[in-house]
Amino acid sequence: MTVRPRSRGPKEGHGGDEATQPTSQVVRGREPFERFYAREFRSVVGLAYALSGSRAASEDLAQEAFIAAHENWDKVGTYEKPEAWVRRVVSNLSVSRFRRRTTEMKALTRLAGFRNETTELPALPQEAEAFWSNVRRLPKRQSQAIALHYLEDLPVAEIAEILECSPNTVKVHLHKGRKKLAARLGVEMGGES
Predict the structure, then answer these.
(1) pTM of the entire structure?
(2) Structural domain span for residue 143
């Protein structure tokens, strides 16, 4: 995973007095992890919920991402947007979890036959549940782009940073995802190109 670190101050010949600027320290103070965690936890859990469909799983995914950030805070804390790094980790973990659960379910089905055990999910309005269920059925990048755009209300440029792709690629994922959702939900897309 590649995430771009913060700028470490003015470059040579670009302003500032080079003799007084320390080059081995981050010029802007790094936020304490505890403050970062308190500020970001709720929205990261929301993203994880949109991607996983389970409250318990979303809290686990968010905790795993924050543990990874905490363990590497000396590095992650220097990034311009450490919150983008955490969201990227949550996105990747949700895909890994989905693959692992799919494999487990196939194995259980083969070994013991299918048992109709359902996990209790928090009550959502019928339209919201149908929408997010369909979002989770989209290809990985489309579902991630849609969740980041509509749930996190992030602009295309920030989604591109999180997913490590170009803004145009994000626009393509959003367009294709919207088109598939519209078809699945029986909604006309309108004047979107």
Answers:
(1) 0.49
(2) 123-186
